[in-house]
Amino acid sequence: MDDRDLLQAALKARQFARAPYSGFSVGAALLCKSGRVYTGCNIESSSFGLSLCAERTALAKALSEGESEFDRLAVVAEGSAPVKPCGACLQLLWDYAPGLMLVLGNLDDQSERTSLARLLPSPFSGSDLPGGVKRPV
User: Is 55 a catalytic residue?
Assistant: First the structure.
């Protein structure tokens, strides 16, 4: 699957976003090393801290189906430039897929490719915890 196909999968997932409070709909598509693609959309709550981002939704679906190796994540939302994941998403992605490549896009067909490490250059990790908790598998 090329980047364009992955962006299209994220765009399709965006259609199912539930963003009644912000109006900011986001779609994500996570390509696993197995070749399977898991999609996600943002799902908002009136208690904003309980809202789910598209990226975390896609990752949770993949993890809950037994996936543990990831290749690329595409994210699409409206904006003047390709959208970037929030800090909470970057952290969770780092915990489970530190080598992940990101394909970021917007509705104007602009896109860019970057790495998770570039967007989160000095992450908190399990090694920062007392006793040096190992990376999850």
Answer: yes
